[in-house]
């Protein structure tokens, strides 16, 4: 979704730095990128809503995703 590319780019940058500098060195505190992730996922959810994309439709066409899967809840 083009309207979310900037959010994704910023989150990916943060995640990659966190992964390299923190996670691989033993820290699993991923809160440093949490606000960027919230912005990105919020944008995706809004874009899906505007385009009438329903997650149940997605699951119907992608049966390899467990019907019990629930996305992580925001903290």
TrEMBL record:
<keyword id="KW-1015">Disulfide bond</keyword>
<comment type="similarity">
    <text>Belongs to the TRIAP1/MDM35 family.</text>
</comment>
<dbReference type="Pfam" id="PF05254">
    <property type="entry name" value="UPF0203"/>
</dbReference>
<dbReference type="GO" id="GO:0005758">
    <property type="term" value="C:mitochondrial intermembrane space"/>
</dbReference>
<dbReference type="InterPro" id="IPR007918">
    <property type="entry name" value="MDM35_apoptosis"/>
</dbReference>
<dbReference type="GO" id="GO:0005829">
    <property type="term" value="C:cytosol"/>
</dbReference>
<dbReference type="GO" id="GO:0045332">
    <property type="term" value="P:phospholipid translocation"/>
</dbReference>
<dbReference type="GO" id="GO:0005634">
    <property type="term" value="C:nucleus"/>
</dbReference>
<dbReference type="GO" id="GO:1990050">
    <property type="term" value="F:phosphatidic acid transfer activity"/>
</dbReference>
<protein>
    <recommendedName>
        <fullName>TP53-regulated inhibitor of apoptosis 1</fullName>
    </recommendedName>
</protein>
